[in-house]
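Quick entry between incubations.
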Amino acid sequence: MQRIGVFVCWCGTNIAGTVDVAAVSEALKSEPGVVFSTNYQYMCSQAGQDIIKDAVKEHNLTGIVVCSCSPRMHEATFRKTAAAAGLNPYMVEIANIREQCSWVHKDMLTGTEKAIILGKAAVAKVNLNTPLTPGESPVTKRALVIGGGIAGIQTALDIADAGFPVDIVEKNPTIGGKMAQLDKTFPTLDCAACILTPKMVDVAQHENIRIFSYSEVEEIGGFVGNFDVKIKKKARFVKEDICTGCGACVEKCPMKKIPNEFNLGMDNRRAVYIPFAQAVPKVATIDPSACNMLKSGKCGICSKVCTAGAIDYKQKDELIEEKYGAIVVATGFNPISMDKFDEFAYNQSRDVITSLEFERLTNAAGPTQGKLLRPSDLEHPHTIVFVQCVGSRCDACAEKGKEYCSKICCMYTAKHAMLVRDKYPDTEVYVFYIDVRTPGKNFDEFYRRAVEEYGVRYIKGMVGKITPEGDKLKVQASDLLADKQLHIDADLVVLAAAIEPDKTARPLATMLTASMDTNDFFTEAHPKLRPVESPTAGVFLSGTCQGPKDIPETVSQASAAAAKVIGLLVKDKLTGNPCIASPNELMCNGCSSCERVCPYGAITYIDKEFPQPDRTVAVRRVAQVNPAVCQGCGACTVACMSGAMDLRGFMSSQIIAEVDAICK
Amino acid sequence: MQVNEYRPLIVAFCCNWCSYAGADLAGNNRLNYPADVKIIRVPCSCRVNPMFILRAFQRGADGVIICGCHPGDCHYTSGNYYTRRRMALLFSMLDYLGIERERTRLEWVSAAEGAKFAATMNDFAETVAALGENKRLEDLRCKK
Amino acid sequence: MHKDNEKMKSEIIRRSGVNPSKCMRCGKCSGTCPAYDEMEYHPHQFVYMVESGDIEPLLSSESLYKCLSCFACVDRCPRGVEPAKLVEAVRLSVIRQQGANHLTANDIPEMLDPDLPQQAIVSAFRKYTK
Amino acid sequence: MQKITRDQIVSKAVSLLQDGTVSAVLGWRQGEFCYDVTPSVFNTAEDIEANFVWNDFCGANFSKYLVSKTKNIDGKLLVFLKPCDTYSFNQLLTEHRFNRESVYVVGIPCEGMVDISKVKAVSGEGIVCAESKGAGLSVTTIYDENPKEIPYAEVLSERCLNCKSKKHVAYDELLGDEGEVIDSARFDEVEKLESMTSEERFAFWQGELSRCIRCNACRDVCPACTCEKCVFDNPNSGAESKAPTNSFEEQMFHVIRAFHVAGRCTDCGECSRVCPQNIPLHLLNRKFIKDINSFYGDYQAGAEVGMRAPLVDYDLGDLEACDVFERRDSE
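Done. Structure below.
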């Protein structure tokens, strides 16, 4: 039996004005378990807290009920008081007789009556309270960043600068991501490579950062602070630590007609290749699907020309196992496929290109060395049509396209149009738009400059149809404001393709038990207040894996994610909330209902041996709750049919006791 | 107020993060609602087991209301979605058994909606009061 | 909106099964329309005018008969609005107003001609029973 | 009546037992009366040949027995499952209640089982023999040795008249032909109740549920009720009570029970079959099934292994609780 003390607060006249506090403390005296009951002007004051501490000692109290303001206000205060008096802080319950009683009722009689009932409910609950201790788990002081684009790079640098080791896993042979493919960046027009490559070098040289390039995450186990990750380092057939990146092998490789992914297939690379000059790590990679030596054992030229002896045709995939405290997802995006948009003739003409291809065409390191030449005949295009919103903002039921706005297209199209008019003033540039969306610092000014200073012709209306005819592209569109049909003979058409999350994101989310929306973007723990955290503890989101973003936004989110990771890794131990779910193994059916409703993936199952009355041993599947992951929502407790799952601090028996006390 | 006037007994389950805070806000703004409403704090509306609701009715409650965060705003991301399904089915079943459907309610009240909390409680208390005592459900043993 | 217009609007929406408020005014329907130059009101205007209940001018417009029913606009609309079905529904309103050429299933048997292709019967049935 | 004969089943059981595929057989054995058939485990071929029963009274759903009977078995247990039993089988597998490898399932077709109370209503008490004969049962009682012939249509149990599926959704081997899922009228009765007034419904259920004697037979037979410890037996659950003390207790018991199996109940109808008071308990379960179908899309528990039950799932656009009645009233 508990020995409960009841402390009724007047809160000046806030409570005492509408509630007869003396009557409340008197009435609660006779409740089961109550051995002491008093009232005082301000329970939260030092003097009030001293009354509680003294009573705990004097009456050997095991539980405390404070009838006062909302627990959201002073529950923490009174828990500390209890702890100071040597009591478990979770033996305190608050009856909210201010916000939910004295302040909302005018009549002293009803107010007092209700206050007594609320007090009785709290006493009934405390009678069933048990001391709770928060669980502790150690933290592995190392972070994993999945994806080596600008988001991953920024997150890794920030975490590493704070002194924690970071590993970056990048599926391509080099880090850099999409930003490395871009030419200039809006709205300042600095060159992407000039601002990105120094950061890539920083990453390569940072003592706290390891890069696993040409690698993929295979398996993820564990939980916040204690993830176990298996990383597959794919064989690149070049010894990374020996290769100097001199490029002799590339130069001599006889397989010259392999489409170059980095230039989106607009030119060719060799079977052994370095994606681009500033690649990090600057190490060659042999493409096993193209290399003669690997396919048929006939060639071996690269091995002969490599003075460092870095070529290793026998290299195997390598599996690396590492422990991490936190995982950052930075898997990025890709433009959607244009295959379904027949009306834009993307697959019929090489001169209909996507915006990312256009970036490569204008990039000094691109297939045309930065000269704007159209892919089909390498002629300078005189009329260029940009089409916005290709595949963005589509109906949910439509078979092609995405429902959301891809966010970045308006700005990069303005940039492209402006750059063309700047370099080639003899070029006619049309931009067909539905809306021009420019919310961002200096964004609208940028767009206006494109129109006003550079004479880009913005036309409201979606292009209806593009027909290749001779060396021209017949563009048919309706100018909605002038209400007339336009027929433009274009030399080059650039489609602002919608962006979608990278295909690797979905299987990764499954491994992480992190949730995703219907478009395969990762969901945040809270859309407004916790935008860089996944609902799965210890998993953080950086960049476009969470939603379409431009570079400044990506970098902000990357740093925010890093801050969250640092905040986690700086702790030696994670102290959990002790009010978590706990299963009674003897009653657990192993049915998985709780596991299915858990938003955090906190529940797992083990096969456990149970001694039987007949001295045999039975093996049953039973639920286990990971205290470091459980957040204590209680969804599992209701999903559990047998009632094996209960929630500490809000046990079924406690809530039923409250119900009974109120309904008595 | 007349002493003998019938007043209903109403149990309100409120989630800690939104609706309980909404009730606190109603208090901060001194928005009146009947004292018939007694609030039980739960971490999330998904902690409310249908058994608790039946228990309240069994012990003489005249109405039970469950309040949670608006869909999409759950502190635990998805708890209230489960609540919504469970309560939709439970309420439909109670109605099927011939229990007045007005005695149960599920409302979404955010931490900012003090006024909505008070208005909801006023409306619910009035509705339940109009129905009168919960004769169909109460357990006579537990009555005084 | 005038009451008659409101009524006609809901009738056209019902008959066509089109929800014009899904339109985001991109104009791709007009941009793709082969009969654009022939039309007084273009497909995107059709959608907008039906949405705002401005139907009178459409009823008397030649545009109704210029639509080729090629369904390019239906195919390409990113929002799934299906402008051609709206044009068809407005056209039907005019036809209805002109005469009582509305059919019920029971009227069909006596009008049947053994030489009439099956397809024509079905498409006429679909059109005149709406 | 049954398309498949006892001989076919017995020879299948004996051969599987003898060739070592299985080490025991779960089947039906004769009870006290001719219509009283009880589930039983057979360990020898002799026992099977002598005592295995297959007739129009073999209604028992064996799926639930697998939970306890496979616990300490060496080898596999042979079980004969009728189409509706296979749904429970899958549902139990979904919930990891037994090991699929410990069971060998032979699917057997079912033409519907007889409700003995319906037979008694025609023949009177004291039945000594009830055999299949043509399109009906031939029944002899101690009061009348001239057999009385009753057509099947009059004595088939309610659940069989409204059979939802003749298709086996799980088996290792099938005797006879595969059937189809049937478009049954099983929700008609629920709809009838829904169309009554609240008072009428209350009166109806009060009339039905007040007969409940809390024997727990419905729970004990239910293939969805396999909890290690049932809430009704647990003094800490807040729902424990061994005997009804007033009218609401039955309602509370039956609502909790129906809610606990909601989304998991396959509508096998065992609860109504075993109720000694003939309470139409399936009407509670079917109400949940009907609501789930109407609110969240058609769902048949046990149609496949591994399905996510509607109550441990959600959709962002789910119906609000306050719109439940509007939805139903408009239907």
